[in-house]
Amino acid sequence: MRKGNNLMSVSKQNILNFPEKTNLSVVQIEAINWAELLHSGNAKKVDQVAFEAWLGKDQEHGETYRVVEQWWRDIDYVAATDAGLDQSIESYVVADERGERKSARASLWSMSIKTFAGIAAVLVMGFFLLQGGEVKDALPQERHVSAVGEVKTVELSDGTKVYLAGATTIITRFSGNERGAELVVGQAYFDVAPDKTRPFIVKAGNTLITVVGTEFDIQRSDDDVRVSVVEGRVEVAEESEGATPRHLTAGQQLFAWEEGGLGDVQSFRPETDISWKVGRLEYVNAPLSRVINEVNRYRKNKIILRNKKLEDYPITISLAFDETERLITGLKYAGVATIIQRAGSVVIEEK
Questions:
Q1: Distance in angstroms (rounded) separating the CA atoms of residues 51 and 88
Q2: Residue 149: count of CB within 10 angstroms of its CB
Q3: Which residue segments constitute the domains of the chain, with CATH numbers given?
Q4: How far apart are CA 64 and CA 70, in angstroms?
Q5: Considering the entire predicted model, what is its pTM?
Q6: Distances (CA, A) of 184 to 26, 227, 331, 339
Q7: What is the pLDDT of residues 64-86, one digit of tens each?
Q8: Three-state DSSP class for 271?
Q9: Which residue ranges of the chain lie beneath pLDDT 70?
């Protein structure tokens, strides 16, 4: 065990293990995870690709990471600027031409670097006190990452298989009496090996999914987590203490909102919602914002939706991973938006 004088050196590890003790947003936690990995000396090329995919998903990601990177330097984690990393961040941080911001983002963007660092220090100290003056080592964990355009299969030590959609990151933690994983970003299909003595718990944002042995798909976006059950029974609950869980069976799905609350249980079509497992992207009247979020996992030049009015525009289309340009072509010829080709991205703006 490590004593209090090493608090700051383990703060990043404990943020994920004890998320209920933080007030950080999902994007802030993701940015911290990326900073930890990229400065650990263990990052591989596939990690850099996944990081750039995460940056390209939303302007907020780049701006948040910039704050975290500076914070990291301020508390002496990094001695000097990584020029390659800065270039990646710069390529995705662009001026918001509309000057609009979601209310949930405003506090972060107005937060100073020192304030962000202060919050982290308080969180670490709070955890230190709760542990009686010592910081306990976290469960052994492994990070699994898929590249943009890649579908990757991971077999865990208990026999569970996890299929990662493009640009997805999960962290797994196992011990003698615990099985768990966190979906940090992206989409993953879990085929959980049965073990009644050790339920398998998946964390995605503020949502906890608990199973004994079953098959289910989890998709995480900035605004929600979608849980779809293919076989068996799944318990879904908010992370807050005393939250009432919902139970899903095969063929059922629900959304959990990042801002809090669970949606209604509804039926779904595996052949569309989980089509990525067989190399296709299938949509029937799906909102454009969700389609773009998924399609971006399979293309280097990210699509950026700047037309808020089109977020819920219904899309019905069938694509192979290498056919995502057809989505842009379809929107162009439908006459519903202006398409602007930029270096490294495609911007969809109001017509």
A1: 9
A2: 16
A3: 4-130 (no CATH), 141-270 (2.60.120.1440), 279-350 (3.55.50.30)
A4: 10
A5: 0.65
A6: 9, 15, 30, 31
A7: 887 777 666 554 433 333 444 55
A8: helix
A9: 1-24, 70-140
